[in-house]
Amino acid sequence: MAKPVRRVVTGHDASGKAVALIDAVSPHVLRYETGGFTATMLWQTAEMPAAFAAGRDRAADQKGVVPPPRGSVLRIVEFPPEDPRRVAALTHRDVFRGLVAPDESLGPARHPFMHRTDTVDYGIVLEGEIDMWLDDSDVHLRAGDVVIQQGTNHAWVNRSGAICRLAFILLDAEKGKGPAGRASAPAGAVPAAPGTPVRRVVTGHDAAGKAIALSDHPNPNVRIRESSGLVAHNLWLTTATPARTVLGDPATEHRRTPPSAGGMTPGISRRRSSTRSRSAVRPRFDGGTEAAPSASRSPRRRK
Prior knowledge:
Blueprint: E1 6-12, E2 18-25, E3 29-32, E4 37-45, E5 72-79, H1 84-88, H2 92-96, E6 119-127, E7 129-133, E8 138-142, E9 146-150, E10 155-157, E11 164-172, E12 199-205, E13 211-218, E14 222-225, E15 230-233, E16 281-283, E17 289-291
Parallel strand pairs: 9-12
Antiparallel strand pairs: 1-2, 3-4, 4-5, 5-11, 6-9, 6-11, 7-8, 7-10, 12-13, 14-15, 16-17
């Protein structure tokens, strides 16, 4: 049985005051018997800019793994320890039948859980340990680590002997694999940033189209608000809908809260910072450069 997840959803009452519309354990729990994992659905959006849902539980709208076009999905998944004998008897089709659109899956490969979706995924390890298998490599993850998954083939393999819990935010993304890059140095190669380090693993594709870890470092995009002592780790930034896969580090360009229209910013915490001019290029993980997105903002739709 999955660990209960308390979910607090805020909104406004008739007088316009901020209130908690929902404060209860999420009832949207799905047990995937074939894969052995359990997912607790927490929220979904189906448009960008996202619409506020007064009096409606949008988690009940989600069907399958991927978010709706121009949308997002928030869920927590529990992965039990893997039974090698049971997994050996499974096929990729057994595990993902009805969960992932056929044109998005690139398995079977190294493991029957191998799959990909046309999404940008933010994965945060909440509890335990797990291995993220890519096409030719593995990345071992522990509680507190963060993964930015850019539409890459992968499998979550738990051989730790204990349950591992991850929070996932999936964003609808452009179709295809995106630009090719090269893996950079392993974790520890980046100078330490202020505050408690947050390990960030960013996936992408190499020139042969294989899934790789483009970056595996402590996140360098850390800001401190001296007046309050708040430490903000800006982990990633999207500036378009559907989201685009990139080789550079867009989190270095985050200068405002909230992000621009059509964008999204995950972080361990947040802070406001002064506006700065943006360079026309940004560094890539593999040592090259790429064009930075335009600083212009898309107009917001009027309600």
